[in-house]
Amino acid sequence: MTACSVYLATPVLRDVEAFLPDLARGMQQHTPAAVLLRLADAPDAELIQHIQTIQSVVQTQDIALMLEDRPALAVLTGCDGVHLSTEFTEASVRDVRQQIGGDLQLGVSVGGSRDGAMRAGESGADYISFSTAAPVVPAEGEDPESLTALVLWWCMVMELPAVVEVQTPDEIVGFVQIGTDFILPGPTFWENPSVWTFSG
What is the pLDDT of residues 6-29, one digit of tens each? Predict the structure, then answer.
């Protein structure tokens, strides 16, 4: 039986305090290597409070805390890294890499794009995140492929770790078997963490 590391992502949060019981339950059920914090728009002072609240739960357990799409706040608050979603357009991956320096981790979501994954890797990403919810976009001149085939190729050829965001527990086994480094369960994970199994 093969297992991979678990990478948990919060929903986009407005009320962080209300989510803490769900976070604790999910982390107790499946101890993650990292937690990705997604926050709704709010004034910076409020966002900082939200981040500090989650830090007190996550980082105190030696679990990495990644902040989505807010590199400046990640640096300011002492997060372990930044994760750029496919919607992030404020700066290039290379510029964010320079902004956060070499000590923080930088993850980049590319959906199902082979070219996007390669560009992110060349621009300073520390890991690449694929998603089963996105269509696979083959490299120019290449035939269409499944996401499983794309991730298999990435794991065999590239050194950067691969994260795959899956929408259902049934999608996990295939990606674990091809050597995916991290599985990130989709939003339904928080409804019932016990039904998710991160092995294949």
Answer: 999 999 999 999 999 999 999 999
